[in-house]
Specification:
Blueprint (H helix, E strand, L loop, with lengths): L1 H37 L19 E9 L4 H11 L6 E10 L7 H6 L2 H5 L2 E2 L4 E2 L20 H6 L3 E5 H11 L7 H9 L11 E3 L9 E5 L6 H7 L4
Parallel strand pairs: 1-2, 2-5, 5-7, 6-7
Antiparallel strand pairs: 3-4
Helix pairs in contact: 6-7
Amino acid sequence: MDNLFRNVTDVTPRRSFLGRVAGAIAVGIAGFATPVRAQTAPARSGGPDWPGALKGRHRQVVDGYEANGGFPLAFAYTFLVTNEPSDATAVIILRHGAFPIALGHEMWRKYKIGESFKIIDPETKAPAVKNPFLQPKPGVLLVDDIAIDKLLANGAVIGACNIALQVQSKMLAGNADVTPEAAAKGMGREHRPGGHGPAIRNLGRQSRPGGGLHLLRGRLIRRSDLEGMFRRI
């Protein structure tokens, strides 16, 4: 009986002690948590606000890493055509083997892009000597509106990878007997409407939100960019 009483009386101090420990831990956690909640992430200065404000509730990013017969463009077109035009925006990233889609006809001819990348022109069934995805004749592509100029006109936002530009200009410079630096300058030069290619703008000088084709300097896209694009409405 004494042992039972002793066990019971021992439990009460232990419970009291454990309660005080739990309380101290809770206070300690609260002390640590409060400043964490109060802290805000430092503002990031990763360059201009690209892609800027995107219209509509529905947004899609297409990661184009190969030309693949123009399918990166077709995927974006399919997304847009199945939604209300005013309620959707497609963002297309052209990198790696898909980067030449962003270049104009003269660049394709001068640097033998079709031959070098084994891209067949669906019109001639031969290695492309012009950009087959830019201003093609009606009926050449699976759907006329998947052409890059048509997508741009319909509000698509397109980014071309600057790293791909630098690498491919070195690869292709010999085809035109020019230096890699000259090739990079030619490929990265801004094309005005009515010129040889779509409007490629250097993000170091261009930060206008909305449509257009932009040259992404040194990176493709940050996670924070994606979170901004697809934030809940």
